[in-house]
Amino acid sequence: MCSETMDQKQTEATISESEEVSSIEWEFINMSEQEEDLIYRMYRLVGERWDLIAGRLPGRKPEEIERFWIMRHHEAFAKKRKTA
């Protein structure tokens, strides 16, 4: 009975997380040239450790940095940038 409850909680958490992610409308995040440069350099050093990168950019959250990176490097967003 305990395992059923834990499985249900995990399933509910997964569903709510996926709903949250899919409901977000992503708008392009504007970064200054200095911020972009720092993001690229930090990414080469630490990889996808967005919290470390965001720690070097005052006022930026790890989620913003990750979203910026995805929007710059994901094929679906690249196609949208080319048509805009």
Q: Could you say which overall geometry the principal axes of the C-alpha atoms support? A: globular
- Mean of residue pLDDT values: 74
Order of helices and strands: HHHHH
Rg measurement, Å? 17 Å
Low-confidence stretches: 10-23
Number of helices: 5
- The CATH topology assignment of the domain at 33-78 is Arc Repressor Mutant, subunit A
Q: Residue share in helices?
A: over 70%
The number of E-state strands comes to: 0
Structural class: mainly alpha
Distance between the termini: 54 Å
Task: Please report which band the strand proportion falls in: under 5%, 5-15%, 15-25%, 25-35%, 35-45% or over 45%.
Answer: under 5%
Can you walk me through this structure?
With 84 residues, the protein is mainly alpha-helical. It has a domain at 33-78: Orthogonal Bundle (Arc Repressor Mutant, subunit A), CATH 1.10.10. Helix content is 75%, strand content 0%. It is built from 5 helices and no strands. Helix 4 (62-73) packs across helix 5 (75-83). The longest helix has 22 residues, at 2-23. It is globular, with a radius of gyration of 17 Å. Mean pLDDT is 74; it is low at 10-23. Residues 1-10 have a biased composition (Basic and acidic residues). Residues 32-69 form the Myb-like domain. One of its GO terms (biological process) is anatomical structure morphogenesis. One of its GO terms (cellular component) is nucleus. This is Myb-like domain-containing protein.
